[in-house]
Amino acid sequence: MSxxxxxxxxxxxxxxxxxQDAQNGQVLMMAxxxxxxxxxxxxxxxxxxxxxxxxxxxVKGETSGHFQKVVSLAFDCDGDTLLVKVExxxxxxxxxxxxxxxxxVNPDGTFFINSEKIKE
Length: 120
Prior knowledge:
Layout: E1 15-21, E2 27-33, H1 35-44, E3 48-51, E4 56-59, E5 68-75, E6 82-88, E7 103-105, E8 111-113
Parallel strand pairs: 1-6
Antiparallel strand pairs: 1-2, 3-4, 5-6, 7-8
């Protein structure tokens, strides 16, 4: 039995994938995968996701050059979330931040930018 048989994909055939920097543990982004994108990620050695809006596969870094080399892939106890540890080249965020989580919320509901953009 493959580990993929243990995964619980949602009604759309997708599973959330949390992407984490393998060196420092920073959460870089979250994206969706289906069975084929999980298989391609393992086979190709870099992250491959399913774009819900474009209805197609996308290789992270394909257009930006900011690839994610996969170091490890794990799944949680319920089998409904993936954790992908990567070596990130450049920005993980399409807004050119290292992480998509560049905004921190204050207790009063305001927020601030917690990092600087990566120079292009």
